[in-house]
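User: As part of a screening pipeline, I want to sanity-check one entry by hand. Below is the sequence and the SMILES for zinc ion. Please return the complex as structure tokens so I can compare it with the automated output.
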Amino acid sequence: MRSLSLARPGEALDILCLGAHSDDIEIGLGGTILSLIEARIELRVSWCVFSAIGPRAAEAEASASAFLAGATGYRLELGEFEDALFPTQSRAIKEWMINIRGRASPDVIFTHARHDAHQDHREVSALTWNVFRDHLVYEYEIPKWDGDLGRPNAYFPITRPVLERKMTLLREHFGTQRSKDWFDDETFQALARIRGMECRAPDRYAEAFVARKMLLSCDAGPRPRG
Ligand SMILES: [Zn+2]
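Assistant: Here is the complex for your manual check:
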């Protein structure tokens, strides 16, 4: 299948990553980020975690710096919205997101999936589409006990070493999540393998997204003479 390249080596790419909680961005697109950096794309990242309070703020900082080692630059924005109650804080979250919009001009936005079963994730997704109206948006997926995985339509193939690195960093940085019985290498690898199978990834693994709107174009090139 022909792929649409986000950027070539040496080209700049600005991305905005929106995550409700401190491990969401890493789970949803950690492998994609590691791959973009490995491909020597000049990656500039706005990394925004809406609920990063106490130990979860420290986790978010340490993990972002590990995943983004080698990025051209990044800005970390940590909010203190109350976990599990995002729908009741919608107005304040929207204001925070509008402020982020004022500081960022991303080529691509990564946000939560519209039909995610977690109310905080859904709120961030809905407000993303509400606040960012002229942007390329990809919605990432988070496995969980609700069994809410949807039908993605965009894939980013990743290599085995990238998947290993993603799983290692998740293990190292998210001690608070160890009590969740789904938070382990087997879950992350299984999902990556299924998504890799679906897109026929050369190295068997992939992360997957929902792309609701995309613009297609062609390079017009020089006008023919005469
Ligand atoms: Zn979350």
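Points to compare against the pipeline: The mean pLDDT is 95. The longest strand covers residues 12-21.
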